[in-house]
Write a structure and sequence with these properties.
4-stranded parallel beta sheet; 6-stranded mixed beta sheet; transmembrane helix; membrane; 43% helix; single chain; DegV_C; Hypothetical Protein Tm841, Chain: A,domain 3; Rossmann fold; alpha/beta
Length: 287
């Protein structure tokens, strides 16, 4: 069986990691002059508390030694492995993982190892990992799983909003003027991902209006919302995530919705109150 590996930016819940034997590697979180391994010795709620108190966290990629050790273990045991990483457009983890893969292949030239750039973030590539792990458990081949990942990479949509523009300002996603005016006017930006990078899409006033628009965009972009898993991730805002889920069910009838909390790696940049929606605009064909 192909081993599926990911990192903590994928925001998958522990029960799915355990059920599908997914290996999750930790990104690094730096806050209040301390360095942590995401989801190892710091949890999202703790980070969001720090942020609400004024802390400005930073993140770093998965340590190369951890990547190499994990890939070496798979190669040594003759296990095919696919490591699905956070988008190369927002993290250096993919590039580092490729270097580590090449080093492992020098020692184990016959090993079947691939590093896959999700061009995605949060539960966006969490859904990719989830689908790959399901296929691995079903006995699909290495190449079949890669084919599915390529479909997701091409057709996965990310629509999200943030509660406080200050966090996007720190990350250089909006100008200082836009952040100040947006806060004063209670403007909520709607953003999306394109080619693995974040881009503003629309600006609306009021959270309820934003949630409605997010669902509208999903319905506009998706050729079908039947038989797909829709993902919702939130940064310590279960109430809004629940409201979005109920709105999706009401508008589309699709109840196959996975809801999870945004972890430290993504939450450090998006900030508390972020809400994100993920879906395929073209369903995967059943082979």
């Amino acid at each position: 069986m192909t081993t599926i590996i990911t990192d903590t930016g994928s925001d998958l819940p522990k029960q799915l990691l355990d059920e599908y034997e997914i290996i999750m590697l930790p990104l690094i979180v730096q806050v209040n002059d301390e360095e942590y391994l995401d989801r190892s010795n710091i949890e999202p709620k703790q980070l969001y508390t720090y942020m609400k108190e004024g802390a400005v966290p930073k993140t770093a990629q998965v340590p190369p030694s951890i990547i190499k050790e994990t890939l070496t273990s798979c190669a040594r045991n003759g296990q095919p492995a696919i490591y699905i990483t956070l988008s190369s457009g927002i993290s250096g983890t993919y590039q580092t993982a490729v270097l580590m893969k090449n080093e492992v292949l020098e020692e184990y030239p016959n090993a079947q190892i691939e590093v896959f750039d999700s061009q995605s973030a949060s539960l966006g590539y969490g859904l990719m990992v989830y689908e790959a792990a399901k296929e691995a458990k079903e006995g699909k081949s290495f190449d079949e799983i890669l084919h599915t990942l390529q479909h997701y990479q091409k057709h996965l949509e990310h629509i999200f909003t943030v509660d406080d523009l200050e966090y996007l300002l720190r990350g250089g996603r909006v100008s200082k003027t836009a952040a100040v005016m947006g806060t004063l006017l209670k403007i909520k930006p709607v953003l999306h991902m394109e080619d693995g990078k974040l881009f503003p899409l629309e600006k609306l006033r009021g959270k309820k209006k934003v949630l409605g628009r997010m669902v509208e965009i999903m319905k506009e972009r998706a050729s079908s919302l039947d038989d797909i898993t829709i993902g919702i991730s939130h940064a310590d805002d279960t109430e809004t995530a629940k409201a979005l889920k109920e709105l999706i069910i009401e508008e589309t009838g699709n109840k196959n919705i996975l809801v999870t909390m945004i972890g430290c790696a993504i939450g450090a940049h998006a900030g508390p109150g972020t809400i994100a929606l993920f879906f395929l605009n073209t369903p995967k064909k059943v082979s």
